Amino acid sequence: MSFAAKGWVKFDRDEGTAAWAAHARKIAVPLTKDPRFAGDWLRCGGTWFVGVNLLPNDGQGRLPDGPPLAGPAIDFLRAEGLMTPFDSAQVSVIYEGYPKPSDAETPAAFRFRRDRDAAHVDGLKATGVDKRRHVDEPHGFVLGLPLNEASASPMVVWEGSHEIMREAFTARLQDVPPQDWAAQDVTETYQAARKQCFETCKRIEISALPGEAYVIHRLALHGVAPWRDGDTAPPEGRMIAYFRPELEDIADWLA
After folding, report:
1. Which of 172, 180, 213, 215 has the fewest CB atoms below 10 angstroms from its CB?
2. What is the pLDDT of residues 158-192, one digit of tens each?
3. pTM for the complete prediction?
4. Number of domains the chain contains
């Protein structure tokens, strides 16, 4: 099956990608231990470091004094016409015991994180007391780059879910000009489509090592598996860098 059909693709180890990951790890590890970031980014009872826009890379993904970000994943993004200037990479770190309950989440939200991998579509932030959803950050894609060897908490994706999401949001927004999409409450549409994905799509765990990479379709339902008994990771935790650049034109989100 192709990326267009599955909504995800994984790439084998590449030396250029591995060189970037090794350099990124050297920068990321001390940043994840910086007490300045613990208050906002250490969540789920201390078992998840969020690390949004943590790395100081440029628009091509290159880090200071580091090698260029290269490899088959980058070639794929260019060939598919998906390449846009990169944002600063997120560094998501999972620690043993993830997820643990916390005061920041309701019991229902914790159960969803534990039992449904905190499944979500990027860019649809839950805001306000009622946690309503809007197209706040229309991302172009999700590029995952493991920074260390770990078996714990792999990326999870529901195969083919991007087409269910596309159909649902197209129907919901077909009479709304793209410039007004961000103002639309799409909560019910999103929840119904997500339920359909759970019922009809295959849940896939994408395990990957440094030097490998994967791309997730911007509309694909995805999440993170809980840390299971027997999972392993280095002392700094399971560490993956993600690029999620926003689209320049929100109309492309459903293209």
Report:
1. 180
2. 999 999 999 999 999 999 999 999 999 999 999 99
3. 0.97
4. 1
